[in-house]
Write a structure and sequence with these properties.
Elements lengths: L14 H15 L1 E3 H8 L3 H14 L2 E4 L2 E4 L11 H6 L2 H12 L7 E4 L3 H13 L3 E5 L2 H7 L5 E4 L4 E2 L6 E2 L3 H6 L3 E6 L3 E3 L2 E4 L2 H12 L1 E7 L11 E5 L5 E5 L4 H8 L4 E5 L6
Parallel strand pairs: 4-5, 4-9, 5-6, 9-12, 12-14, 14-15
Antiparallel strand pairs: 1-3, 2-3, 7-8, 10-11, 11-13
Length: about 270
Amino acid sequence: MSLIDPPTKRVDIVPAKRRAIILEHLRANGAASIQELADAIGGSQSTARRDLEHLVEKGYLERTHGGAVLVQPTRATFEAEPLVNAELRHAEKVAIGREAAKRLSPGDSIILDGSTTVMEAARAAAERNIPLTIVTNSLDIAQLCASVSSWRVIIPGGSVRPGFMNLAGNPGEEFIKSIHADLCLCGASAVSGTLLTDSSLEVASMKRAMISAARKSILLVDSSKFTAPGFCTLCDVSDLHEVITDSAIFAEALTALRSTERKITVVPMAIDG
């Protein structure tokens, strides 16, 4: 028997990662056959079909004869699955998060919402290991932050929606309204012109409270979030102090942001060959 183990096939990765690979492949190529998607995930056609069926059911894709095509979600209440969303535009989210972590100073009190890009900011801040007070409605972010010995972590309370690890509603929202933090890092489901929206009323209400409770608020959004508005208004870019995004942002979207005269930071990304 060979002493060298055969390479692990990519089909062994978790379903959320496979589905993110499929979505990114379709974003880059517009459409793809079953075989092309199977090759992309390193698995079989049957695995690719199961992942496609899941993504079609959730509203990401439309099936075509022998393949699939990426579509702009038509429902204003569309919410990306958290595990899949965390894998999409991952390099961009890491870069944006690292840039955001540079804004933190020792002793700051920071409000972190539950967005996946804010999670990357928390990871980058943890590497700096400076003393901070963290207030977050995300159970995932709270677990990460609790591993940093120099951080005090406060979870405001509320209700957990099925399938999501973020708290919303009271008593958490009332608690957020009672504090005065140095900085809030938040995300948004969509940015349309200068309007920030979300697909959930409860989430939008909590984020508004977070933004109002901080002296400064920074929006962390990758370039894919500049799209049609979600179900409910969150706030306007002019209500924030800075927006951090990546260099794949469309020129029209960047022009709209700069019209608010807020600080706009564009993180450069390497261009794929």
